[in-house]
């Protein structure tokens, strides 16, 4: 079974500053994928970034980067130069990579990020 | 790519009534997922399909819940004899390929049971 822990229920960050959203996970799978999603107040879930457990380099997508520390089982999301439009709920999620059909994506409880002008 | 489409966006029903939601995935995606999300929580997995085969069901999916994907394209989620505890956002997602492929979500159906 997989478990995702996000310990920051809410964060307030000044516009243009960088922000780190914490995510730790627990799994017995050897191969897995880690995902971050953004959910604005409108409700849609927007995929942001992916990190595979065997990827040697940290993933980056524009202003988003993933600080992956496999030994510590952490996959923190870093948003550089935050913007007002970054205000949203952010969810960390994980999914096994296997040939056995267990493809459930498990989510954490989320962090509500508010960007202050 | 028109994205994942869910209908209706909102549904208000009286306790005890049956409701059915529809999800149209991205056309080339062979995997389709249903999730439930309550206020302030992350989405909880309900079930998923690969083509028309339902491969996994959560224990959250009681016998009042049934999902189908008859031709491997759109899917329906039916809740019979709704209860107030069923009030939630029901999210559908689709993906192509295995674990490294992200799920693409629809805008959800918000169910309110009165």
What this model shows, in words?
The complex is a heterodimer of chains A (117) and B (114). In chain A, 0% of the residues lie in helices and 51% in strands. Chain A is mainly β. In chain A, the strands form 3 sheets. In chain A, strands 2, 5, 6, 10, 11 and 12 form a 6-stranded mixed β-sheet that branches. In chain A, a hairpin with a 6-residue loop joins strand 5 and strand 6 (46-52). The model of chain A has no long low-confidence stretch (mean pLDDT 94). Chain B has 114 residues and is mainly β. Chain B has strands at residues 5-7, 10-13, 19-24, 31-37, 44-50, 53-57, 65-68, 75-79, 88-95, 104-105, 109-113. The interface between A and B is medium-sized, with 30 and 26 residues.
Q: How would you concisely characterize the structure shown here?
A:
Chain A is 0% helix and 51% strand. Chain A has 117 residues and is mostly beta strands. In chain B, 0% of the residues lie in helices and 49% in strands.
**Strand content of the residues of chain A, in percent?**
over 45%
Most extensive interface between two protein chains, with residue counts: A-B, 30 and 26 residues
N-to-C CA distance of chain A = 41 Å
Radius of gyration of chain B: 13 Å
Please provide the count of β strands of chain B. 11
In helices, the fraction of residues of chain A equals under 10%
The major sheet of chain A is characterized as:
6 strands, mixed
Mean of all residue-level pLDDT scores of chain A: 94
How is the biggest beta sheet of chain B arranged?
A: 7 strands, mixed
Our count of helices of chain B gives 0
User: How does the helix and strand content of chain A classify structurally?
Assistant: mainly beta
Output the helix-strand order of chain A: EEEEEEEEEEEE
Kindly state the number of beta strands of chain A.
12
How much helix, percentage-wise, in residues of chain B?
under 10%
Stretches of chain B where pLDDT falls below 50 for ≥5 residues? Answer: none
Mean pLDDT of chain B: 93
Secondary-structure element order of chain B, as H and E?
EEEEEEEEEEE
């Amino acid at each position: 079974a997989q478990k995702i822990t996000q310990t920051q229920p809410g964060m307030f960050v000044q516009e243009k500053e960088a922000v780190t959203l914490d995510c730790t996970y627990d799994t017995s799978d050897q191969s897995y994928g880690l995902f971050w999603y953004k959910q604005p107040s409108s409700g849609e879930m927007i995929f942001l970034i992916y990190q595979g457990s065997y990827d040697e380099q940290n993933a980056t997508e524009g202003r988003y980067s993933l600080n992956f520390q496999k030994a510590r089982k952490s996959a923190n999301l870093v948003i550089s130069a935050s913007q007002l439009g970054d205000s949203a709920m952010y969810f960390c999620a994980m999914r096994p990579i296997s040939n056995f059909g267990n493809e459930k994506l498990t989510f954490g409880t989320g962090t509500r990020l508010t960007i202050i002008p | 790519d028109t994205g994942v489409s869910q209908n209706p966006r909102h549904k208000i029903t009286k306790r005890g009534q049956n409701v059915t939601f529809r999800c149209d995935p991205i056309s080339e995606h062979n995997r389709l997922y249903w999730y439930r999300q309550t206020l302030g929580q992350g989405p909880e997995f309900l079930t998923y399909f690969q083509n028309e085969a339902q491969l996994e069901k959560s224990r959250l999916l009681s016998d009042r819940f049934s999902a189908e994907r008859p031709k491997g394209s759109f899917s329906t989620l039916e809740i019979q004899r709704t209860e107030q505890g069923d009030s939630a956002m029901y999210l559908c997602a689709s993906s192509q390929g295995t674990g490294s492929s992200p799920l693409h979500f629809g805008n959800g159906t918000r169910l309110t049971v009165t």
